[in-house]
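ok trying this again, last paste got cut off
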Amino acid sequence: MRKFVLAGICLVAAPLAFLPQVVAQDAAADEAAQLADLMDAGEGLYQDNCAACHGPGGEGVVGPNLHGNEVVQSRSSLGAQILWGYPVHGMPPFAANLDDEEIAAIATFVRNSWGNDYGLVTAEQVARYRERGEAAG
C-alpha cells in the first residue's frame, strides 16, 4: 500500500514541478503578443502625432532624435512627456487628445524602434502616470 501511495504522490507532484515554467512561458507569450499589438498600433499613431517633429524614422527634426534617447529608456519619463508635453522645448501635451492605450502604443513603438529595445509600456502604466498629474518641464 505504501508503494502505491508514494507512487501516487510522485505522479501528482511531478507535473506540479513544471507549473512555474509553464506560467512563465505563458506570461512571456502574453507579453510578446501585447508588444506586437502595441507596436502595430503605435506605428500609425506615431506617424500621425509625432513624426512631424521627431521624424518618420525617429531621427529628429524639430524635436530630438529618439534613437537611444535617455527619456525613451524610461517608461515613466516617456509616458509623462507624451501626456504632458515638454513646453519649454515646444513639445505639446497629448493627454487631452489620446487615451491611455494610444499613449502606451506610441511609447512602446518609440521604445522598440530604430535600434531601441526597451520593452513595452502598458495602458495601466500610462493611467498611473496620468493620475500623478502634470510632469515638470
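PB: full thing came through this time. The longest helix spans residues 19-49.
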